[in-house]
Amino acid sequence: MTAQIIDGKAFAATVRAQVKEQVAHLIADHGITPGLAVVLVGEDPASQVYVRSKGKMTTEVGMASFEHKLDVDTSEAELLALIETLNNDPAVHGILVQLPLPGHMNSDLVINAINPAKDADGFHISNVGLLGTGQKSMVPCTPLGCLMMLRDHHGSLSGMNAVVLGRSNIVGKPMAQLLLGDSCTVTIAHSRTKDLAAVVRGADIVVAAVGRPQMVPGDWIKPGATVIDVGINRIDKPEGGTRLVGDVDFDSCAAVAGAITPVPGGVGPMTIACLLANTLTACCRANG
Ligand code: GUN
């Protein structure tokens, strides 16, 4: 069997087009331009790439983009003061503080200073609690993008066995909550899980979010299962140079799976599309 490729790039383009259309309506009919503020502290190269890409996509859908680049030595108090300003700025509907933050900052404190209604990432403790109890919340972008692809591919996920590899607050835990909300039987596996291969072999849906290049081999995958690869890892090519790979070994998994997301072009583009969708949602809720 050769897996169907789930084209996240094309799906994300469709989501962005829908967001763009609704933004145009908001501007034309209500004079409201949704705005997203992205805060980057320091000069982490990967974070700089993400932030640039987010800003570009934000303006492409017609939203206002506010970028705040702070020096790596910025104090936590200064960052908290900026967040307070953004919380009170009516032109800002979504706020994202790029992670990781420099070591002298308490990320939990910073994230929880964001107005939960403007928390475009869905990382605020209030949104985590709302999601965990099945209430209306801001939903973290990467797991939301994964869920949208799964729903699009399968229709209903009810009763499926889902294994989430990784227990991060950003992906693993919210992903498990979302799958549970769609009536999957959910297992969260991690570095201490015993007989990981056997656990993964029981899965109709595998979501890999461990940050370890090509960790999941094809012989762990149940024939016909759907594999969602959240990993973005840069590895050396034998002939020199580098390339991006996911957390699953694409070729061997694609030979067994029913469907699989590629890296790049799978989950990554969906994450930014969902960030824009979250900002639009926040703007609509703020304006009744
Ligand atoms: N760093 C890596 N992924 C993310 C994300 O989804 N949101 C934020 N704010 N920072 C990140």
UniProtKB/TrEMBL annotation:
Q: Name one Pfam family in it.
A: THF_DHG_CYH
InterPro entries noted in UniProt = Aminoacid_DH-like_N_sf, NAD(P)-bd_dom_sf, THF_DH/CycHdrlase, THF_DH/CycHdrlase_cat_dom, THF_DH/CycHdrlase_CS, THF_DH/CycHdrlase_NAD-bd_dom
Q: In which pathway does it act?
A: One-carbon metabolism; tetrahydrofolate interconversion
Q: According to its UniProt record, which reaction does this protein catalyse?
A: (6R)-5,10-methylene-5,6,7,8-tetrahydrofolate + NADP(+) = (6R)-5,10-methenyltetrahydrofolate + NADPH; (6R)-5,10-methenyltetrahydrofolate + H2O = (6R)-10-formyltetrahydrofolate + H(+)
Could you say which EC number(s) this protein's record lists?
Answer: 1.5.1.5, 3.5.4.9
Q: Which Gene3D superfamilies match?
A: Leucine Dehydrogenase, chain A, domain 1, NAD(P)-binding Rossmann-like Domain
Q: What PANTHER family does UniProt report for this protein, alphabetically?
A: C-1-TETRAHYDROFOLATE SYNTHASE, CYTOPLASMIC, C-1-TETRAHYDROFOLATE SYNTHASE, CYTOPLASMIC-RELATED
- The protein's name is Bifunctional protein FolD
* Species this protein is from: Sedimentitalea todarodis
Recall the taxonomic lineage recorded for the source organism. Bacteria, Pseudomonadati, Pseudomonadota, Alphaproteobacteria, Rhodobacterales
Encoding gene, per UniProt annotation: folD
